[in-house]
Amino acid sequence: MRYVTCNNRKYRWPDRPVVVICLDGSEPGYPLSDGGGYIDRAIENGQMPYLASIKNRGLFRTADATIPSFTNPNNISIVTGTAPVVHGISGNFFYDLGSDAEVMMNDPVFLRVGTIFKAFQDQGARIAIITAKDKLRRMLGHELDFEQGSAICFSAEKCQLTTRSENGIDDAGQLTGLPPPDVYSGALSEYVFSAGLTLLDTWSPDILYLSTSDYIQHKHGPGTPAADAFYGMIDRHLLEMQAHDAVIAVTADHGMKAKHDSAGQPNIVYLKPLIEKLLPSERFRIILPITDPYVVHHGALGGFATIYLADPADVQPVCHKLSAQKGIELVLEAPIACEKFALPPDRVGHIVVISSTEWVLGHSQQYHDLSALSEPLRSHGGLSEQRVPFILNCPAPLLVASTTLRNYDIFDAALNHTTV
Predict the structure, then answer these.
(1) How does strand 351-355 pair with strand 304-309?
(2) Which of 87, 179, 274, 403 would you call most buried, defined as having the most Cβ atoms within 10 angstroms of its Cβ?
(3) Nearest to 47 by CA among 241, 231, 180
(4) Which range of residues forms the domain containing residue 408?
(5) What percent of the chain has pLDDT over 70?
(6) How many helices (DSSP H) and strands (DSSP E) are in the chain?
(7) Angstrom distance (rounded) from CA 374 to CA 296
(8) pLDDT tens figures, 229-278
(9) Which residues neighbour 214 within 8 Å (Cβ) at sequence distance 6 or greater?
(10) pTM, whole model, 2 decimals?
């Protein structure tokens, strides 16, 4: 039996195509305050007959995502098979102490380990990666050799701009019959699936990784017509992928929750005015790691924040102040938070704050532009969005119900535990 080792985990060489999918923002199917999980509601409403058909013959479970439950740290956990303390990506956005700057974590320079894709390409595998937004693309394709013709990595967002040297393919916008997708649309994820299916048909990758957008989930709850139509689109593509005798593995980077009151107004804990009751603003810095270039649908409001203090002696008073605030579930000093959530200590502030289920954390009212929020706020980042689907289209008898699963175990499950 042939194996490939990556980050101290061994992965069996695939004997048929392996398709691993990160369904951004997909709540799992257990009872929730807003009506249940996206996949289970779509199955109940007759929109996902393929997944319904594998529910009793494959693996249909839930797993824990990485905290903070944001896109970048979880996608990188999935494709490295490790936690943020190992790979170094602690959010979409962080404060770089070395450069004294707040920066996006979308540059491979911040990665501390290699990916499963690189390890397999080095041994001769064909790798295809398609992500919805370009913010992930360079990290997912880190260190891949595109010149040798065995790797393709591009985003649906920038599909018309791809080149062989940068992405392993020229003009990926021609892969499908679909028009170029708008980044703020469900069509962005549909392009990911359509292009992935085309590559399975024409290019025969050994490993195909698809990562979608959570635009629909930010705007529509589980079981709504728009959500069901979106998951129906996914189901149709999964069925066509099954025709390639592929192992299909589905997980998510995070769930999604309603973050508003009964009148549809967002429930926001603004941290700056609370801390200013104790300290002048120049003595602390608030980082909201959900921040990325695509803030229209969440307004940079999420369930996780980290706070840097000029004087560590202020940690206890600030923790005490925030812990008493309605809408905040957990306030932890950094060493405790890093141990609990396997975070890199040098990329987390002195304090970690996590909101409760129906609330989000903000900087200050002036900091956030909410004018583009056209529906009641739905967001993620905290413990309430940590549970995600963990689905295989074939049996995995060793992954018994008592096994604790993380979303970054999905490659191990797909490559090491599946049976025909």
Answers:
(1) antiparallel
(2) 87
(3) 231
(4) 3-91+105-256+381-416
(5) 96
(6) 14, 19
(7) 9
(8) 999 999 999 999 999 999 999 999 999 999 999 999 999 999 999 999 99
(9) 24, 25, 71, 254, 256, 380
(10) 0.95
User: Both 363 and 395 in a single domain?
Assistant: no
| Residue 292 confidence class, pLDDT cut points 50, 70, 90 | low
Q: What angle do CA 378, 20, 189 make, to 5 degrees?
A: 45
pLDDT of residue 374: 72
Within this chain, do residues 220 and 164 fall inside the same structural domain, yes or no?
Answer: yes
Evaluate whether 333 touches 350 at the Cβ level (below 8 Å): yes
Secondary structure class of 360 (helix, strand, coil): strand
| Residue 315: burial class (beta carbons within 10 Å; 0-12, 13-18, 19+) | middle
Overall number of domains in the chain:
2
> Reduced to 3 states, what is the DSSP secondary structure of residue 369?
coil
Q: Which CATH number characterizes residue 153's domain? A: 3.40.720.10
Given a contact cutoff of 8 angstroms between Cβ atoms, the answer to whether 391 and 53 are in contact is no
Beta bridge partners of 332: 352
Position 23 scores a pLDDT of 97
Q: Mean pLDDT score of the chain, rounded to an integer?
A: 93
Task: Show Cβ contacts of residue 133 under 8 Å, excluding neighbours closer than 6 positions.
Answer: 71, 155, 156, 157, 183, 188, 213, 294
pLDDT value of residue 32: 41
Average pLDDT, integer, range 318-335: 97
| 242 touches 248 (CB < 8 A) | yes
Asked if residue 272 and residue 243 are part of one domain, the reply reads no
Angle between helices 187-202 and 225-242 (to 10 degrees): 10
Contact 363, 37 (CB under 8 A): no
